[in-house]
Specification:
The complex is a heterodimer of chains A (357) and B (369). Chain A is mainly alpha-helical and 357 residues long. Helix content of chain A is 69%, strand content 6%. Chain A has helices at residues 12-36, 41-50, 56-81, 89-106, 115-141, 145-165, 206-222, 224-234, 236-241, 246-272, 284-294, 299-323, 327-349, and strands spanning 2-6, 190-193, 197-203, 350-354. Chain A is globular. Chain A starts with a strand and ends with a strand. In chain B, the strands form three sheets. A six-stranded parallel β-sheet of chain B has the order 2-1-3-4-5-11, with helices on both faces. A six-stranded mixed β-sheet of chain B has the order 7-6-8-9-10-12, sandwiched between helices. Chain B has a two-stranded antiparallel sheet with strand order 13-14. In chain B, strand 8, helix 8 (225-233) and strand 9 form a beta-alpha-beta unit. In chain B, helix 5 packs parallel to helix 6. The termini of chain B are far apart. The chains are: A mainly alpha (357), B alpha/beta (369).
Chain lengths: 357, 369
């Protein structure tokens, strides 16, 4: 059996060396795989890592792609810091979007942009309500929140599917499962740059990240609530002796992370889709779990992790467009990258020993 | 004077070289750049593979005159907007977006690139530079119904359907009309799997149908999973989108094949000769180019695993639909509640087909939603 024992002291040097080493190992294996499959390995690496930075509109598309990942990731950070395992951000994302979207569809003629703020609040409430189910089951009945939150993802997926096929379906959509388009007030516009016009899909929703990252940094590092969350995660017994109410903290972090997932959904759909459809999330809620851990559960880290994952995803598309590399191959490479990065993280923090049974 | 002559000649040389460059660039080389966006991978042996085969026909037909770029596995959301825009930015002159869900993304990008032509497959919205194309899949399904009616012993047909949209419902109804034209005792039960492509769900649905006594299966989904189950369980079935005979040599009766190649070639030729247009099809139905057996956009594979007389009957029905002699949705049509949809002597027009939200006689249950 393999056992993991936490290291007494995490070496400062290793926290820097490990990620660099991971990236080198990834590149090495990437070169091997791409060469083996008959693609020009250097060009492939260029397409995956660098081509997304090769044009200004491509760079802005990185931020568009990273936006929902970062918002959801920040919410999950709070949960994971408190040792609360919310795996269902995908479902909270969907329910937030659905609640805010249904509200938007009630007002088909709204023009004022103030409306989007109401939608964001409703999206937060929708996501938070969906996360409240595992929260209350965990605190009252000690039901495992991993299972409940994960299962509720599938409930949410089928529920939005039902809604856009039934009550919310646009009668003009020839039977296709789509809602009516949102009104002007419910849309998030692209940012116009004087003299350039639009940069890819870059939209005002990005401003939310700029607000969220410093606020969440202050929250976890400078407030008592943030401190309580950290203590509960690091030393539950100590938190108990200190008189921190564990249940309150559990419920709070789940509500905030569910709410943020809902907000991410509202921003994503209002900026990029403009109506409700059966699929609104494309796995952001699950990918954000990786983003949170890659970012070492810190807001700045999550910002960079989100950008990195988005870059690789965009790079994979570029590699496909310009070199015809199938997504399964770039997906494999993405897997190798995540494997090495997360292994590096684990080895830094834990001693791994083989213990005979 | 010498100086002047030198200047004159150098100017001549320069301008002629510029001219030469322009001419060579216009008439030689400079292939038409064509982009394709696929929902799944071309190895799905269904919907996307049918498009891939069309793309290969394009390459074969035009050779060096076109340069094709295809992008696989593009989800129907913001990612598709970015991919389509990237294709337009890289100078593709015509872009085929081959799934319904690319409709809004295609129109978004089309507005930004008014000089690029877009072809949205199976959509219903058009604009100045967005045309739509679709196939009359239901024509193949009518022939399937005829064959199923003659082959079934249990008189139970299992239908695996994706989403309750008009395109799928009209397929079920066409199948029912074919079925009832030869066998009044047979009926269809439908399982909705709510996905286009999920081989596990498709296989599970096939197993349920077989357990309930169906001995002929058909599908409106993308993978050969249903036929594989049919092959294993010793029942019969039909392939969809591509010829799936390799997956079920003893179970496949025939496959309805989506043949996009001629359509793609036609539209690219129109673009190259400056005659590309969005057609003037009526507004109420999806696709200003809606071709079936007649135009060759729909073909069927070899009839097999059936007696000769059944194959002959099927061939006859096929020929009659193809020649336009036989109208599938001709009255009297009665829905499965007994209500008359249209009396004898009249037939449903294309607009009515796209509004279908009921089952005809011979189908069990109700259309969901």
């Amino acid at each position: 059996m393999i056992t993991f024992t936490p290291r007494d002291k995490v070496s400062k040097n290793w926290t820097i060396i490990a990620p660099i080493l991971s990236i080198f190992l990834t590149i090495f294996f990437g070169l091997l795989i791409f060469t083996f499959l008959g693609y020009n390995p250097l060009e492939t690496l260029y397409q995956i890592f660098l081509s997304p930075f090769s044009r200004i509109d491509r760079i802005s598309d990185i931020f568009v792609k990273a936006c929902p990942l970062i918002i959801v990731g920040i919410g999950l950070m709070l949960c994971f810091r408190a040792n609360v395992w919310n795996i269902g951000a995908e479902g909270q994302f969907i329910m937030g979007t659905l609640l805010a979207g249904s509200f938007a569809l009630l007002f088909p003629n709204v023009e004022t942009k103030f409306f989007i703020f109401i939608m964001i609040i409703i999206g937060f409430i929708g996501g938070a309500l969906w996360a409240f189910i595992p929260a209350i089951l965990k605190t009252k009945l000690n039901v495992n929140e991993i299972l409940v939150s994960l299962m509720l993802v599938y409930v949410a997926m089928l529920f939005i599917d039902f809604m856009v096929r039934g009550p919310l379906r646009d009668p003009m959509s020839f039977g296709f499962p789509l809602s009516k388009p949102y009104s002007q007030g419910a849309l998030i516009n692209k940012i116009p740059f004087p003299g350039i016009g639009y940069l890819g899909q870059l939209h005002y929703g990005i401003l939310f990240i700029i607000l969220l990252i410093p606020i969440s940094w202050l929250f976890v590092n400078k407030t008592l609530s943030g401190f309580k969350i950290n203590v509960l995660g690091a030393a539950p017994k100590a938190a108990q002796f200190a008189g921190f109410k564990q249940n309150t903290i559990t419920i709070t972090v789940l509500l905030i992370s569910g709410g943020l997932a809902g907000v991410a959904g509202v921003i994503e759909v209002s900026a990029n889709i403009g109506q409700l459809q059966p699929e609104v999330s494309f796995g952001y809620g699950f990918t954000a779990i990786i983003v949170a851990f890659l970012g070492r559960l810190s807001p700045i880290g999550i910002l960079f992790a989100g950008i990195m994952i988005a870059t690789v995803k965009l790079g994979a598309d570029n590699a496909q467009i310009s070199m015809g590399i199938p997504k399964v191959v770039t997906g494999l490479f993405e897997g190798i990258l995540l494997f090495f990065l997360l292994t590096g993280e684990t080895i830094q923090k834990y001693k791994i020993k083989w213990v005979g049974v | 004077m010498i100086k002047f002559c030198m200047r004159f000649f150098s100017l001549m040389a320069l301008s002629s070289s510029v001219l030469f460059f322009l001419i060579t660039n216009t008439f030689a080389g400079n292939p038409t750049k064509v982009g394709f966006v696929y929902l799944h991978t071309k190895e799905d042996f269904g919907w996307t593979m049918a498009h891939e085969m069309g793309r290969q026909m394009v390459e074969k037909h035009f050779g060096k005159d076109v340069k094709v770029t295809e992008v696989n596995n593009v989800p129907e959301g913001p990612d598709s907007t970015r991919v389509i825009r990237e294709l337009a930015k890289q100078g593709n002159e015509i872009i085929f977006t081959t799934s319904f869900g690319y409709m809004e993304p295609t129109h978004k990008v089309a507005k930004e690139f008014p000089n690029v032509k877009f072809e949205h497959i199976t959509g219903y919205k058009r604009s100045k530079n967005v045309a739509t194309g679709n196939i009359r899949f239901y024509e193949g399904r009518y022939i399937q119904g005829v064959v199923a009616g003659l082959m079934t012993k249990t008189n139970k047909i299992g239908y695996i359907a994706s989403f309750p949209i008009s395109e799928v419902v009209m397929g079920i109804n066409a199948f029912a009309l074919g079925l009832r034209s030869v066998n009044k005792d047979a009926s269809i039960s439908v399982i909705w799997v709510n996905t286009w492509k999920d081989s596990v769900k498709e296989a599970d649905a096939a197993k349920v149908h077989i357990a309930e006594g169906s001995d002929v299966l058909t599908q409106h989904t993308d993978t050969p999973a249903m036929l594989q189950i049919a092959e294993k369980s010793g029942v019969l079935g039909f392939g969809q989108a591509t010829d799936m005979v390799a997956f079920a040599p003893n179970a496949q009766l025939f496959s309805s094949i989506n043949n996009w190649g001629p359509y793609y070639i036609k539209k690219i030729e129109q673009l190259r000769s400056g005659k590309w247009n969005t057609g003037d099809g009526p507004k109420h139905w999806a696709g200003n180019e809606w071709g079936g057996l007649k135009s060759g956009m729909l073909t069927i594979s070899k009839f097999q695993n059936m007696p000769n007389d059944v194959a002959q009957k099927a061939q006859k029905v096929h020929d009659e639909i193809k020649s336009g002699k036989f109208k599938i949705f001709a009255g009297p049509l009665i829905d499965n509640k007994g209500k008359e949809i249209i009396p004898a002597g009249k037939s449903l027009d294309d607009g009515a087909l796209w509004g279908m939200n009921y089952y005809l006689m011979g189908v069990n249950g109700n259309v969901p939603g």
